[in-house]
Structures are given as structure tokens and as C-alpha cells.
Design brief:
Helix content: 25-40%
CATH superfamily of the largest domain: Dihydrodipicolinate Reductase, domain 2
Order of helices and strands: EHEEEEEHEEHEHHEEHEHEEH
CATH class of the largest domain: Alpha Beta
Distance between the termini: 6 Å
Number of domains: 2
CATH architecture of the largest domain: 2-Layer Sandwich
Largest sheet: 6 strands, parallel
Strand content: 15-25%
């Protein structure tokens, strides 16, 4: 016996990864349902190596009897259906941005703040943080517990998969067009993405920041510590999968690079690859399909008192989205927030 799980947005990059992750981790399911918009009805998606699911219509689906809803359909869609699913008693784990800053919705990274899950029944919804925030706070949490973080300055190098399948297609199409001397067309991105970098993710805000940069600031405060100051510059790069971040951290008390390296090696969900030699660090190509957050280039920042610099890399579709959602569901069962399977 097991739990009935519905995956919403099952035909998208994250939805497909959610199905794959559930199967790989042998999540205790009795039934898995794939849901998407009306235009995707009947589309077949894989659940593990052997099972194929036919997509059903999200707009008409009855969530009664569903235990977990793993959701990644877009913020506007989640705003409509997530409360409807939660009203039936299902635990909705939502990957969109819509509920993240709701004070009655836990924003959770299981390695960082699993205690926040206790408040899930207020709305029946748990929010998955932004992909860039997730990998950063996983790396920061064990260091914060030892030396307390005052300030973080982060520059991200975010892959196009974070913007969806159409964005991945645009990178491929533009790259091919350049090689064959064809016209480069922009549809998903504001600038050419092939052989370029774009310092613009999500919409611009009044203070000149983009919403992606704002998300990293407010989500880090909600998840880790409201006293931490965060300055972010978020950049889209011509990489298909995997986000990288250059992170500079100012602590309240001294923390050497050697101690930080030891602390991170012992922390859950982190892989340390930090050799001061050629190839002694991790890049997005190497983390594709990996579950851990990898930390490299750990060194002391001499420009600020009690400073360290880190290079943080993770698969944004896995730990940055699908895996984190499944880990939340696992933690709900493990910590007794959800009853045992029938």
C-alpha cells in the first residue's frame, strides 16, 4: 500500500523530472496521476522505466482521496487549483512562485528548515523555493549554524531550462542558426541567448532589481534568517541544465576556509569538490542528473572581515525543483505530518 500522488504540470520539464524522481527514490505510491492543461490530455509521460501514464485534465480532476499533489504548472494556474486540491485534504507541494511569501505557507528546503513543515495545515500548501535560492541556502545553512551570516553577495549563472522547454529549444535553434549562417530569432528571451549572457531573469522592479533577484533575497530571509542581507545579480547563460553561483559571504565571527570545507563535507545534501588544481571544481555539465548541491572554490575573501567565497553548482531541475518537492513529501511522512499509508 502507499500514497496517491498527483503530479500537476506533468508534461513540463519539472513535472517530468518529478515523475522520474518519485520512481527513482521508490516513493511509496499506490497510484500516480499525471495532470496538465486540456491541450495535453492523452499525452503519454513516463513514470520510471516501465510505466507510462496518460495525462488527464487538471481543470476537471477530482482531488478527493489524493494524498500528495506535486505541482509545477505556472503561478497563475497554481493560484486557482492549489487551494481547490488542498480543500480536499491533499498536501499540495507547489513549485511555483505564487505561495512562497504567504506567511501561512511554509517555504521549505528539507536540509535547512524541516521544522517549518509543522505549519502546513494552515492552508494545506507547502511552497518549493526558487531553484537558485535552494542550492544557495543548502550550502549556507551549515556555515550559518557555526558563524552566523551577516551578508551575502551572489551572482548566478542560470541555465535556460529554468525558463522551460521553449527556452531550451530557443538556445538550440539559435546555436544552430549561427552555425549555418541563418537568421537568429528571439522569442523566449529579450536578447540572443546563444553565445551570450543575459543579466535579466523575470520582470524588472522599481528599484532596478529583477524579480528573480528579489526572490533570492526574500526567500533566503524566510528560510534561513530574516537578519541576513542579500544582494543578488541573476544572469541567464547558454547552458541547458545546471545553475552555478559565485557566492561571497560575510560572517559575524571568523571562519577559515579549511573549517568551512570540513563543515560542508559533513553536511547533508552537499558534495565538496575543492582541489586547487586544473579540473578541481564542479561545473554544470558534471552535475546534470545529480541530487547533491556541489561546492567548490572555497577560499577566504580578504576584501571583507570574516569573509568567504564559494562556487555552488546544482541541477536546477532536480534539487532546484523536482527533488526538493519529493524530499518535502518524504519529510512529511518521516516526521509524522502525514499519516501512514492505507
Amino acid at each position: 500500500m502507499g500514497y496517491k500522488v498527483a503530479v500537476v504540470g506533468a508534461t513540463g520539464n519539472v513535472g517530468r523530472e518529478m515523475l522520474q524522481t518519485l520512481a527513482e527514490r521508490e516513493f511509496p505510491v499506490s497510484e500516480v496521476v499525471a495532470l496538465a492543461s486540456e491541450r495535453s490530455i492523452g499525452t503519454e509521460v513516463s513514470f520510471g522505466e516501465d510505466d507510462v501514464l496518460k495525462v488527464q485534465d487538471l481543470s476537471t480532476f477530482d482531488f478527493a482521496g489524493t494524498d500528495f499533489v506535486l505541482s509545477s504548472p505556472g503561478a497563475k494556474v497554481s493560484a486557482q487549483f492549489a487551494p481547490r486540491a488542498a480543500a480536499t485534504g491533499a498536501c499540495v507541494i507547489d513549485n511555483t512562485s505564487h505561495f512562497r511569501m504567504d506567511p501561512d505557507v511554509p517555504l521549505v528546503v528539507p536540509e535547512v528548515n524541516p521544522e517549518a513543515l509543522s505549519g502546513w495545515r494552515k492552508k494545506g500548501i507547502i511552497a518549493n523555493p526558487n531553484c537558485s535560492t535552494i542550492q544557495m541556502v543548502v550550502a549556507l545553512k551549515p556555515l550559518h549554524d557555526v558563524a552566523r551570516i551577516r551578508r551575502v553577495v551572489v551572482s548566478t549563472y542560470q541555465s535556460v531550462s529554468g525558463a522551460g522547454k521553449e527556452a531550451m529549444d530557443e538556445l538550440f535553434t539559435q546555436t544552430r542558426a549561427i552555425y549555418v549562417n541563418d537568421t537568429v530569432k528571439k522569442e523566449k528571451f529579450t536578447k540572443q541567448i546563444a553565445f551570450n549572457v543575459i543579466p535579466h531573469i523575470d520582470v524588472f522592479m522599481d528599484d532596478g532589481s529583477t524579480k528573480e533577484e528579489w526572490k533570492m533575497m526574500v526567500e533566503t530571509k524566510k528560510i534561513l534568517d530574516p537578519a541576513i542581507k542579500v544582494a543578488a545579480t541573476c544572469v541567464r547563460v547558454p547552458v541547458f541544465i545546471g545553475h552555478a553561483e559565485a557566492v561571497t559571504v560575510e560572517f559575524e565571527s571568523p571562519l577559515s576556509a579549511e573549517d568551512a570545507r570540513r563543515i560542508l563535507r559533513d553536511a547533508p545534501g552537499i558534495g565538496v569538490v575543492d582541489h586547487r588544481a586544473d579540473e578541481g571544481y564542479v561545473t554544470p555539465v558534471e552535475v546534470t542528473g545529480e541530487d547533491k548541491v556541489f561546492v567548490s572554490r572555497i577560499r577566504e575573501d580578504i576584501s571583507v572581515e570574516n569573509g568567504l567565497s564559494l562556487w555552488v553548482v546544482a541541477d536546477n531541475l532536480r534539487k532546484g525543483a523536482a527533488l526538493n518537492a519529493v524530499q518535502i513529501a518524504e519529510a512529511m511522512i518521516r516526521d509524522g505530518h502525514i499519516g501512514p499509508a492505507d
